[in-house]
Amino acid sequence: MKTRRNNMRASFVQTLVYFDEPILALLQNRKGMNVLAYVVRDGVHGFTDPYIAKPTNEKLLGAYFDQKIDLSYLMHETKGGKPYIFDWDKFDDEVIMEPVEEVVKDYESLLPPPGIFSRNHTERRKNITVTSLIAHAFKIDGRWSAGDFSRFYAKLADLYAIFSFVDEMKGSAFLAQKLSDKIAKYPWQRGGSYVGFFKDIASESREEYPLQVSKIKYASPGEIEVKGVKTSLDHIDSLVIKLDGSKADLSTTYKELRGILERDGVLGTDDQDFSVRPVADLAKTRASKLLAGLGIEEPSTILKACDDHLVTYSKIALAIYRRGEEFHRFHAEGRMRLPSSRLSSFQEI
Hints:
The protein is an alpha+beta fold. The protein folds into two domains: 8-120, no CATH class; 134-337, no CATH class. Helix content is 42%, strand content 19%. The chain is built from nine helices and ten strands. A six-stranded antiparallel β-barrel has the order 1-2-3-4-5-6. Strands 8-9-7-10 form a four-stranded antiparallel beta sheet. Helix 3 packs across helix 5 (191-205), helix 3 (146-169) crosses helix 9 and helix 7 runs parallel beside helix 9. The protein is globular and about 70 Å long. The N and C termini lie far apart (66 Å).
């Protein structure tokens, strides 16, 4: 069976050729990779203003601007992957691009003809770098061991992955099915299922939602700076703030939900459903409350990805809480502050 590729998000950098409309434009994806977008003159069903887009590396793009290769060669080159297609009419801050082979069976006719060189551009290339990844510096203080740094990043990465995936899948049936497949892959009996699941979704979301450690300053006070997508990092900050204010309530909900699983005899089994409906309803209420309290805006998206199996749904809710609680602990201990906070010292008292 043919494997589908993920959609790609890209931001506008500049127009290179313009005649009544952009003919050729330069974009960048979230990893900073260059993408050339060429107008599709004949139209494509379901698209108002279609463009075919080709990710490319700096070496090939440089060869194109040096007129050593033409646009047709670059767009056919396999480095950077196969082309995508998008609707310029839907361009906002970013545009979502779909793999063109999944939209148009024979897409070769959409590619530019031979003989278009950079000398044909109507605008010069500007030295612009556009990326939607932002720097996010967590301020740290006190004593940190190597294990502390490792645990901090592991919990941050798990939370970042789940928030990224849930945000993205709201508008993508394809990603929703991917999450469902990854949940169904595991028996959810022991810790290996949880570790494997979060590793899977982190790997899946890395292309569009990369998380990178950009700087670690070990001094006390110091900082751990990461680069990632703003919305996902904001969700994590919000989770920390929510736990600051509602930790006792959320902890109680966590214990109640775990107790329901334990009493029904399904906590350490591969059962997907509870023994009776009233128990299932009670667990659903607790799991949804827990997820909403952690900042998952639509817990029903996760329930749907679990194919409405409420034992699985409850276990995932518990797993997300544990990761949130462990990450928040660094904040509660005073060893980590959010980017919006400032560290105080005895000199300020």
